[in-house]
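Summary for the steering committee. The consortium agreed at its last meeting that each partner would contribute one worked example illustrating the joint modelling workflow. Our contribution is presented below. We chose a case with several input lines so that the handling of multiple components could be demonstrated. No manual editing was applied between input and output; the record is shown as generated.
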Amino acid sequence: MASIATSSVFFPVSSSLKQNQVSNLKMVSLSFTGKNFRSLRLQPSRFRVACAAKPETVEKVCEIVRKQLALPADSAVTGESKFASLGADSLDTVEIVMGLEEEFGISVEEESAQTITTVQEAADMIENLKAKKA
Amino acid sequence: MALKLSFSPHKMPSFPDARIRSHRVFMASTIHSPSMEVGKVKKPFTPPRETHVQVTHSLAPEKREIFNSLNNWAEENILVLLKDVEKSWQPSDFLPEPASERFDEQVMELRKRCKEIPDDYFVVLVGDMITEEALPTYQTMLNTLDGVRDETGASLTPWAIWTRAWTAEENRHGDLLNKYLYLSGRVDMKQIEKTIQYLIGSGMDPRTENNPYLGFIYTSFQERATFISHGNTARLAKEHGDLKLAQICGIIAADEKRHETAYTKIVEKLFEIDPDGTVLALADMMRKKISMPAHLMYDGQDDNLFENFSSVAQRLGVYTAKDYADILEFLVGRWDVEKLTGLSGEGRKAQDYICGLPPRIRRLEERAQSKVKQASSAPFSWIFGREIKL
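What follows is the complete predicted structure of the assembly.
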């Protein structure tokens, strides 16, 4: 299931990756290789969540990340994107988490907030918290 | 050059400092947390070490000239802020007089007053005293700075004269607090002394990179922080009925204020001469976060000593994340950062970053406060292992 989730996130984005190849070469190659690598190698820690996050959730997280980091709307931000690679410092990361709390009506504990380094992790955590609330 | 690179917002940090540990970060500083996140790979019962890459000599060599050219200015504007030794207070002015017949009586009075002061206050006062006693580290730090270091130990440049005299003034702080705490009978002096030995042994790297721009920005921030902190311990001492202790903390705070004036004056001059370089330096220091001088403190038992101490200091209102934001906001105003003109593109980005930072920090702090915190406490060896609410 995990690999399906990643590929469903991957494909819609790949076309925009190509569009941005010139301007965001570095970011493209990073996330591109990262994705390939990950789909070849199972990372149970990353996908241990029972239900992988819905694509809409991931997309919403990407939006919030873009806004926080003032990235252009077409910039390459995907589930695999690491906050740090996108230029987020520690302050940005906390503010991203705060943005997610507001957007999804959840409350994130300090300990959980510290473990989030990618869009996917954030989306998974959101799904977890929403499920707990329900 | 290293300074510019380290400022680039798109640089990949060498550590996962994307993680942040709530409001405590701004006092404890995330500089400490990387060691926590890397899974605390240090062996047990060893003092913490700086885990960031230690960068050196980031100031462009030609900029060292600036400080030479400021020698006369420094003599006329900075050295005048030093106090004549003959007019300076000494620890003896605030302690029982050993040569007097009334010594025993004075000590008894002191101990009686201290009995009324709660443990958590003492934990914070001890932490402050330990910080002051690590003075060798701070003199060292000043002497790592290019262009202003004391080359021989008795150099006659105004910068070197300042550094030695500043050290001499600060030296009285640790001495006074040490003697007071010793006489109080409320604290475990041996544990405190051990902590001091560990701390001086650990040193610290405030990430000033031998760069006097970074160095004086750092000290400006720190002097104001200690002014606020000692001012608060003075206020609390008064509330607990120990007017003598309040006086002590107050007189120390007054020194810190004078020192703050000196360091902020230097940076003001740097903004005047090299606004672009200075604003970049300020943004760099703020991105790296101002790490507290005693963040590597260790007492042989508690791996989270600094964090625990900071929590208590935060809870008591002695030094808080809000203070951190306030200090930054004060400095932004003091140096008129908003009004800087003629900046490069990078400089303008730095200016925006700095001016936008205080409200972001405040918002962060509000969020941290609103989180339901689990009541936790920790033992402190400084007070014989008694527990304090964090």
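Strands of chain B lie at 377-380, 386-389. Chain B has one domain: 86-371+379-389.
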